[in-house]
Every structure is written in structure tokens, then in C-alpha cells.
Amino acid sequence: MPIDAHVAPDLTAYCRGELGAEHAQRVAAHLLACPRCRRDYEEVRLGVALASRLPLERAPDGLWEGIAAGAARERAGEAPARAARRGMRWRVAVPALLAACAVGAFLLAAPPRTWTVARVTGAPVAAGVRMGGARSTARIGEGDWLRTDASSSARLAVGRIGTASIEPNTAVRLVRSRFNEQRLALAHGTIHAVVTAPPRLFTVETPAALAVDLGCAYTLEVDSVGTSVLRVTSGWVSLEREGRESIVAAGMLAEMRPGRGPGTPVRMDARDAVRRALREIDFMHASPAALDTLLAAATEPLDALTLWHLLPRVEGAERERVYARLAALAPPPEGVTQARALALERRALRRWRESLSPMWGEEAMSPLQRLARRVWDLVVAD
Amino acid sequence: MRDPEGRNRGQAASHLLSTPETGDVGRHALGRASETAAVTAGRATTGDLLAACRRGDPDAMRALYEAHKDRVYSVAIHYFQGDAATAADVTQQVFIKVFARVEQFRHEAEFSTWLYRVTANACIDEQRRSRKLLPLDAVAGSEAALSTEAGHDAGLLRDELSEEIKRAVASLSPKLRIAVLLRYFDDRPYEEIAAALGCSTGTVASRLNRAHRALAQRLAHLRDAVL
Asked: What pTM was computed for the model?
């Protein structure tokens, strides 16, 4: 190592005494001569001293029984394969091989770096070039815009995983087309997306939130000031922005505001009064009547998901009221107590949401979407 | 203690369990007169226990679990910002997976590397799963909020000091947090942390540096208390 090279990468190991003697001497000599590295060293040294004091926490009693039972179940599940090894190997191997080939083909078939645009009406502008006449298709690459005016529309191939219909008065930009992420940005206008892909592969940026496809079909609108509405017709979509997330299932919509992120999902057929009440709670100072309106209208299974999202978005007595209505509509599973739910305990809320899922989970997906998810989980996930 | 290249692993803090170098999983630096299966099995090496596990010996599995449970649990509970329920869930998931495949391992080094790889993956996967399924603004029980009003008294009580450090670690990004936890709760060498996290040793070194500097900047007022 050249004596005059900065030594930042070595500082942690140096502070912990993990360098060989000669290497440590070189680092020490450098620190004497280099004020910048000396400042870094002081910080790292303090950080090492702090981290070394992280307390070891004792695992709670009672975990072993569940582990022993779970491990026994896992091993018992493999026993028939061991007992009839030869035949079972083939019966397991062939489908797994086919599935692996399918996913491998998916992964290795790298997404195109440019996406195809097909003119539907009028003269859309793709990558700065106006389509029309004999020019019925075009391609856009990363960074390119596709724009439609009041009289034009287009259809965009989303890599190899789906399509997006681009409505009039819309501007979208291809942000990224990689094997592990395919991303659009919707500046304004409306798109209808139908995607068949593993979850979280396709995302759409809006001024208000990031729409993350979890295996779905949806419509996304953004107006001139960045206010957005997502309507999901199949599967579900996660909307995320700055620590706030809404999971929007088929049959629901969610509004989004720049600077506020995603609002609470609600049934698409909810009355205007209900949507106004949600807007108050999500984006303004809500009147007491707003929650009254929402709770009175919560009668359908999908309303349970609305109320579940509301739990962390209200406080005190309001949260108790939301809990009571949600529990009446969709009783919490065993172990999810009122106290845990009101305390917004993460695990309790997750279990409750999972118990709601038959109302809006995989059943909302197309057979092809379910197959894509199964293959992905089987071969790619650990 | 020193590794085969003579480097001093001087930071083996007293709260860490015995390192794999000794292979002796029966001795606990915590000083607890442990009545775990590891001790009752009589100071068995990890290799012995693995061999017994492959024969289906339930006591050997219990001994392996007892030897590693606190470290796995500590990684999980600090990763999940003090959420004991999630940490317990993750700990169980880790050991179920480990014991379902224990016959694959002949050597202690392979086992330890794999155990902590599974631990890191379980934490990351659980976080992804929770994030997908739970509004991110539901963070009750999180210790992520870092106190900026901590006193400058160098004589802070030990518990208060630990709490501040725990909160600061919890506020690190997940990538930095998991690197710190694997380093300090298992004393894994950089190569094994890199293998567990699927990155290079250079990336591990960089993440640890960044994490240490972030902790130092957040807890500069504790300098006199710890140095």
C-alpha cells in the first residue's frame, strides 16, 4: 500500500487491532502525516467504541419448542423423497427444472433497452419525434419522453412484461429498463397498465408517490399540479413515499398529493362524501364529522382494508373507534389484541392484514399472474 | 485472542460468546453458570454437535441452538429496532431453516457462515415483507427516533448509555445496520460478512466505516463516556 494513499478503508480494522503489524504501522505513519485521515480515524474510533457496547440480548425462553416442531415438519416433508429416492427425485426434479428454465429464460432474456410505442390515435411524440402517417411505431430509450396531446394516444410495451395505454394529454418518461427494475415516470395525464411480472419489477414515479406493481392491472392519473389517483383493477399496487405506504387492492383507489404521499385506499364505488372525508383525514385538518362518515360507510369487506390503513393515521379516541369498527367488520386473528393493535405493534398489524387477504389477495390476479408469482417464489426466492 | 495470522482480535468484548476459533461452544463469556444442553452435553465441540445432529440427536440440536440463540436474537432485535416479537419470529425462522438442513455441514466454519447468512437474509426478507404489507407510517415500537437532547454528562448510567447506542444503531440504514450487527455480535471476519450479505469485502469495510462514523456523529456527546 503506497504510504501516501489515504487509509479510510482500513480504519475500522485498524481501530479494532485487526491489521497485521506491518500494515498497522503504515496506517499509523499515514495518520501522523494526514489531518484528513486523522479526523476520520477519530470518528471511526469513537464509532467502534460505541458499537462495541451494543448489549447482547438474551433470547426469550420458549422458542425452542416451536423450532423443534418446525424443523421436524420440514424434515418430515423431505422423508418421502428420501424413502423413494429415485422416483421422487425425478418427479421433483423435472417440474423444478422446467420452472427454473422458465424463470431463467425470464431473467436471461434481458429487457430491451428501448420500449416500443404504437400510435393509437393522432400524432404522439416519442423521443422528440412526431409519429403519424407511415410512422405508426417508434421506440423510446432511458430518459426519453412520450407525449400525447388532446387528440392523440399510444400504447407502450413495458419491456417484455406488459403494456401501458397512454391516454391523451399525457407525458411519460422511460426512467430505467433493467432486468431487476423497469420504471416509468408519469409527469401528468393517465395511463392504464397491465403487467405480468414478479412483484416490484415495474414501478411508476409520480410527483406524489411511487407506484410499485405487485402483480396487477391499474389506471394511474396525474393532474397538472401533481395530484394523482390510482385505481387498481387486478392484483394490487403499493404506493410509497417518504415512509408512508398504502397497499391498494383490486377494486380500490387511492389519492396522492405531492408532499403528502399516498392517501388511504378506498373502494372505487365509495360515495363522494366518503372520499371527501378521507381527503380531510389524509391531506387536511379533518373535522370530527369526517371519521363519523367513514365509519358509518364501512360495511363491505374491502372497507376493512381502508380501516386497517387508518389505524396509524389517527390517534387516541379516534384510533379506538377505528379499531372497534374494523374488529366488528373483520375480527382480528388470535393473538392480535386490542392493546397490540392500538399500540400499532408491527407484527400484530401484519397478522391482521394477512387475515384480510382472502378478500383481496391472489384471487384478484389473473391465472397468468399467479403462475408468474409462483414460479418466481419457487426458483428465485430463498 | 489472535487469529492464525497473528492479528489481535482485541475487541472481543466480554459480552460476546466464545469465538469459533476455540470450537468450544460450551463456555460462555457471559459468565452465566449455564445449564444449557451444550454444557450438560459436556463441552462438545461444534463439529461433534454437528455430527450428532446429522444422526438426528435432538440434544445436539438443542445444544447448537443454545450456543447461538442469543447472538442470532441480538442481531434480529437490534435490526428490528427493539421489536421483540419480530425478533423472536425471525430467530425461530432461522433455526428451523438451519436444522432442516444441518446434515449439509461437516465443518464448524461452514455452519457458522451459513447460520449468519441465514440470519442476515431472514432479517432483510422480514423487513421487505413487513414493508410491503404494512403502512410504513405504522412504526410503533420502533426505536428509530434518535434523541438529540441527550445530556452531556459523561457519567451516564450504563443502561442509559446502552439505550442511546441501541437507538443510534437502529437509526442506521438497513445495509449499515446489518453489517454492524454481524460484526459485533458474531465477530465474523469480513469475508464471511461479505458472503452473508452477497457483497465484496471492500463493501463490508466501507459500510462499517460509514456506520462507525454515523454513530460517532450522532453520539459525539458520549465521547468522554466511552473513550
From this structure: 0.47
